[in-house]
Amino acid sequence: MRGTGNRLSLAAGLLAAGLWPGVAFAATVTGSVIFDGKVPALKPLAMDAEPVCHKMHAGKPVANDMLVLGSGNTMGNIMVWVSKGLPAGKTWPAPKTPVVLDQKGCIYMPHVMGIMVGQPYRILNSDGILHNIHTLPKINPMLNRGQPATVKEMTTSFPKPENMFQVKCDVHPWMSAYIGVFTHPFFSVTSTDGKFTIEGLDAGTYEITAWHERMGTQTASVTVGANDTRTQNFKFVLK
Amino acid sequence: MSETTGVAPPQPHVAHEAHHEELGFWRKYIFSTDHKVIGIQYAVTGLLFLLFGFGLMMLMRWNLAYPGAALPLIGGLFGDARMPGGTMLPEFYNELGAMHGTIMVFLGVVPLAVGGFGNFVLPLQIGAPDMAFPKINMVSYWCLFLGGITMLGSFFVPGGAAQSGWTSYTPLANIAGTGQTWWLIGMIFLITSSLLGAINFITTTIQLRAKGLTFMRFPFFVWAQFVTAFLLLLAFPPLEAAGVMQLMDRVAGTSFFMPEGLVVSGQVLTNAGGGNTLLWQHLFWFLAHPEVYVLILPGMGIVAEIIANNTRKPLWGYRSMVYSLVFLGFMSFIVWAHHMFMTGMGTAMAAFFQTTTMIISIPSVVILTALIISLWGGSIRFNTPMLFALAFLPMFGIGGLTGLPLGLNITDIPLHDTYYVIAHFHYVVAPGTIFALLAGIYYWYPKATGRMMNETLGKIHFVGSFVCMNLIFMPMFIIGMAGVSRRLFDAGTAYDFAQPTMHWNVVSSWGTWALAVFQIPFIVNFFWSIRRGEKVAENPWHATTIEWSAPSPPPHGNFVAAPQAYRGPYEYSVPGAAKDFVPQYEAS
User: Fold this and answer.
1) Given Cys at both, which of A99, A133, B235, B551 links B287, Cβ 3.0 to 4.6 Å?
2) Collapsing DSSP states into helix, strand and coil, what is residue B494?
């Protein structure tokens, strides 16, 4: 009887694990990204051309979002994703929850984002002035649409996977953001502390790519076991 | 003035009797080769497109008066891609703007002024039984029809219709959406239509004149159509070539208008390069400035006929008007670059084109002055066609005079691309040419239908249109002189300097919508009078030119007997004559 009970427990455990693989066997890759070298003195964003935008910041200089550093020169706005090693043929459903891009204070928020193919992309205009959403993809159809003051939101989606491309505003040339479109959910954007976390991976060896809009990409190979957590750090240098 | 001179022999009208068999519906009304049916086809098509193009503008005016506000009632019909929640997106505004200009010029005014009036009236006025090439005439109309369908179809392609303005400037037009390709294909049809028509008009005018109808006995309308045909014939081929080249740039990977290393939205384009964007502007304006006169000259011709008829006087300075017309046509080919002062063409070139532009104003002023002087001492009949013709004079005058600052480099640069330009050319073309065309419709309607249009409805139409046209366009001078760009979809909401002018947009927009209301009497009158209008004989206006000798409506072959011209076209109030008009087709 004991043997039978053990086998039942094992079967129940396996069943539970199968139903909830993210918890039972999911591996995690985490890490942090730091900037190495002399920090450049970036010019603040010049919004003088648009008085409304200028007033939103009370005339104070707005930090350039090209390089966002935390204490210890940790880097924000770094996209990190699994670029190779995922099982061929496996698909992941796109979430129904939209990825949100807001235009607030004449700045795109967030500056860097990831989205899955087919996932809703919700574009907000919190500023109440005319903006323009101009995506510059190489693979996906380009979106180049004005968003007048009274059109508070628009929703679209991207039909094809594509690495990072720019989103810009043709009305306010300083406004810039970047987006990557993936077939899987294994991507993460660092916050100012430089940390990223990619969860839910099966055991295996993966190529992890980290990207910055000016400093390019870096890749690393990471092998994770079931229920494993591995750390992979990146370091960017401005050349 | 009563001598006959050697001209082309009268046409053997008896020849037509040999093929007077009753035609079926399709050959009689659809694929007709009769110049009158084709003229009416052109006119109706032109009027429908004028109405459609005006509708596009009414939508635009909503956003200019009330930027960002949802359009009530009908706003939701345009879908989220164009008007989410009824609010107009800038891309849709651009679509409307580009297609408004294209449709009003190439599918509205030109088909009505040249295709409609030219086809219907010109052969009748010269005493011809038909156009010289009736089948080419039919093909010309159907090319226009295909061009129109293509333009309309472009609204339904992904991304919508063309958004690069009616000028289709490169490189913007080269990299624009699919609608721009349709625009180019449509333009190729429209240009082909005009070229076929021009050949026909020139040949007909020279070869099929009635006996005795010398060139200096031509009604001024015939001269206007004759010169217009030359403008179309000589100016359109460069644009047709340019259109094909731009089409190849878009679909075949050529780079006629695309330089190497062009950066668009921060990215270097991968086109072959070697092209020149300014080349397009030169080729476009080489057509488009003569095109301005294509729009105006038929209008001047119509107004001249109506003024002579309703003042009961000969036109003052007929010969000087004709010489001015020919000179004006010639000069219109060497002024095009005054549209391009902003391109940095250099002082020598700018000086040349400023000079030619100032010179071309002289013949325009001569014609306008002659028409005004023609009123002096006349016993004026203020019927509807005359009211529209009279209104043409100051409206065209305002349009012309306000064009002078745009022809001079130093004043053009601050005014360039502002609402001032819109006001200027609309005064020329809208209350100018379109009033003349409306005058022509009221004037020749009895010839086409055998019935008069209703005078009361006509006068309501006139007064409302006159007031509204000025409400629309006069404020634009003020907005333009404040420096507001004509390209802003929200009328400049974001700019402090535009704020003092915003209320003028409300005035202008309400003027536009009121103008639409005042077209209702015209539309009702137009259709009502076909069956209910007062029946009239062949010459209800007691006019002198040859078309009034034909039955109303004229039969196939036009005239009962071959007409002959015995005198000039405007023998009104001849001293000693039994009546106050002596038709040029009557022997004594």
Assistant:
1) B235
2) coil
Name the amino acid, one letter, at B290: P
Residue of A127, A129, A151 best to disrupt the B interface, most CBs of B under 10 A: A151
Identity of the residue numbered B21: E
Residue B8 lies in a domain: no
Which residues on chain B place their C-beta less than 8 Å from a C-beta of chain A?
Answer: 67-70, 84-85, 87-91, 265-267, 489-490, 493-494, 496
The answer to whether position B365 is within a domain reads yes
Q: What phi, psi does A125 have (nearest 5°)?
A: -120, 90
Using CB atoms within 10 Å of the CB of residue B245, give its burial: 0 to 12 exposed, 13 to 18 middle, 19+ buried. Answer: buried
pLDDT at B1 over 70: no
Count of CB contacts below 8 A, A vs B? 46
CA-derived radius of gyration, chain B: 24
CATH number of residue B508's parent domain: 1.20.210.10
Cα angle, residue B572 at apex, residues B127 and B459 outer, rounded to 5°: 90
Helix%, strand%, coil% for chain A, nearest 5: 15, 45, 45
- Chain A interface disruption, residue of B83, B89, B178, most A CBs within 10 A: B89
- Asked if residue B531 is part of any domain, the answer here is yes
> Half-sphere exposure of B439 toward its Cβ, with a 13 Å CA cutoff?
31
Dihedrals phi, psi of B348, to nearest 5 degrees:
-65, -50
The closest CB to that of A154, out of B84, B489, B493, belongs to B84
As given in the structure block, the two tokens for residue B258 are 């695309």
> Any bridge partners for residue A209, and if so which?
A81, A219
Tokens of A191: 């916050």
Strands (E), B252-291: 263-264, 267-268
Identify the bridge partners of residue A115 per DSSP, sorted by sequence position. Answer: A181
pLDDT digits (tens, 9 = 90+) for A161-219: 999 999 999 889 899 999 999 999 999 999 999 999 999 999 999 999 999 999 999 99
Structural domains of chain B, count: 1
Alpha-carbon gap: B341 to the closest alpha carbon of chain A (Å): 26
- Give the model's pLDDT for residue B63: 96
Would the pTM count as exceeding 0.95?
A: no
Task: Say if the Cβ atoms of A130 and B85 lie within 8 Å.
Answer: no
**For residue range B176-232, what is the model confidence (pLDDT) as tens digits?**
999 999 999 999 999 999 999 999 999 999 999 999 999 999 999 999 999 999 999
Three-class secondary structure of residue B573 per DSSP = coil
Using a CB–CB cutoff of 8 Å, tell me whether A159 touches chain B: no
Give A205 or B264, the one with higher predicted confidence: A205
Residue of B nearest to A167 (CA): B265
Distance CA B219, CA B217 (A): 6
Q: Is A130 on the interface with B (CB under 8 A)?
A: yes
Hey, of A48, A150, A168, which one would you mutate to test binding to chain B, going by the most B CBs within 10 A of its CB?
A150
Q: Which range marks the domain in which residue B113 is found?
A: 34-258+273-549
Q: What is the DSSP annotation of B500-513?
A: GGHHHHHHHHHHHH
